[in-house]
Amino acid sequence: MDEILKEIKRVTQPSRLEPIWKSKLIYDSTAEQLEPVYFWILDFMQESGLEVEKLVDNFSASVGGGYFAELGARATKMQEEAMKILGTVNTVLKSIINLLYDLKEFEIRLQIYKDLKEEKKKDAALLALKQIWMDKVDIQRGRGSINALTYDLNFVTLRDAFMAAKSPEDVDKMDLNERVKRILKPRLLEFFDWVKRSEKELNMRFELEKQYLKSQVNSLKLYTSWAKPYLRAAEQLRMKETSLKEPSLVNAFNTILLELTLLGKKKIKIVDEIALGNLPKSMKNYKQKRDYYACVLLDFNFRGIPTRTAHGHFIFGGRAEVDFKAFTLNSEELSFFQKKLEEQELYEMFKFVEGATEESLKQIQKDIEHFLGKEEKEKKKDISLFGVVEEKKEKKEEKIELKKIKKDSYEESLIRNIAEIRAAEICFDIYDKYKKAHGMASFPGPEFQLEEWRRTFSPEWR
Questions:
Q1: Distance CA 414, CA 407 (A)
Q2: Residues 196-248: tens digit of each pLDDT
Q3: How far apart are CA 70 and CA 266, in angstroms?
Q4: Which helix (H) or strand (E) holds 188?
């Protein structure tokens, strides 16, 4: 993450490649637990008004320790449960795909019946239905079918007459012998009766298939919602791959390494800073284009010794190293920072879970919406894999590129200076209060205080 910050600073503030203020806290006690160190700092950050986000959460355990076996067994159990549910998900998904193919076939067939009611398409639709009737219905008569009579028993005019007649009454007007007419009339009556009945039957089956598709989609949502916690838990229990040369992990020892990173940010409000005298009153009407944040980045590196308690849980005592870093980012730099974190696969776990449970349905989402979308559109809702959510217009994500981030204007440079002072003060305050609360020696805060900043104001500025 330091590389990302340096990359941002090279373009926006070349003179500042290092954090505004930084320090390190080392706390080594095998008798005391590591959790209180983390949670004391986390709670204090939140109580200080910072918006806190966890960026990194990794761990590794030595293979000879009991904790490695414990987590391995838990991860295997989660994987087995997830695979059972995913097997059911695949079965339901295949059923949905088959239903979609059937519905498409029904839709094509029903379109012919719709064309039969339109004057321009009526003749073509009637010929198409006659062909279907001969191939699907009449063919079951065997040698008594129209095709068999035409080609095998020399009723050469029968098929053409059947295709040409638009009603049973048209048979009497045709130049045919009586034998052909006696066969043709009942067949035409049967055909037109089949047209009425088959349309009703197809519509009924079409609606039934749609309802069944809806139930299958709901089942898929339910099963995938069951699988998601197991997938996430299995991925969270996966240990970070560490180098074989890592000196802190000895195969025969009982050791665990933890890596945690917290990002705390606080927005700088111009109105409040003007009221405090930290910014000139002339900036009261300044229209701010970008927000500026005082940011605190805390890196936790724990080396612990897992100890099983009487209740079967593990507690960790050991060495904790906490790096405190203060810096400032505007809204564009913050977006670039978050984008870079994603590119470095810090959120790989969540992408894996989403891909395993949601991508499969997205491929057939358009077809599902085509057949079920009418009901949802009336409710102004959208079909989602994990439930029905409000329909929202998709916002185009702005691609933040480092080259496009403009340097600070004069007014923005003043806001950034205030943000830097605030970040340094907040970061030192967390560090200082923790040491004092735990009886450790402390020292004075950053030299660059707000009082010194105010003295730089010119008289007309105040």
A1: 13
A2: 898 899 899 989 988 898 898 888 888 878 877 777 777 666 666 655 566 66
A3: 40
A4: helix 178-236
SS3 content of the chain, % helix, strand, coil (to 5): 55, 15, 25
- Please report the pLDDT score of residue 46 as a whole number: 92
> What is the per-residue DSSP string for 51-64?
EEEEEEEEEEE-TT
- Side by side, the strands of the sheet bearing 51-61 are 21-33, 314-330, 292-308, 256-267, 51-61
The single residue listed with the structure tokens 């089956």 is 205
Distances 404 to 11, 250, 291, 398, 408 between C-alpha atoms, Å: 10, 47, 16, 12, 12
Instruction: Say yes or no to pLDDT of 70 above 60.
Output: yes
| Gyration radius of the chain's alpha carbons | 37
Helix axis angle for 122-136 and 66-116, nearest 10°, is 120
Distance of alpha carbon 41 from alpha carbon 438, whole angstroms: 12
Q: Is the dihedral of CA 454, 459, 460, 462 positive or negative?
A: positive
Across residues 429-436, what is the average pLDDT?
Answer: 91
pLDDT in tens, 245-299: 666 666 667 677 888 889 999 999 888 888 887 787 878 888 888 899 999 999 9
Structure tokens at 242: 């560490």
Q: Measured between alpha carbons, how far is 64 from 69 in angstroms, rounded to an integer? A: 8
Taking the C-alpha atoms of residue 263 and residue 106, their distance in angstroms, rounded to an integer, is: 55
**What pTM value is reported for the model?**
0.55
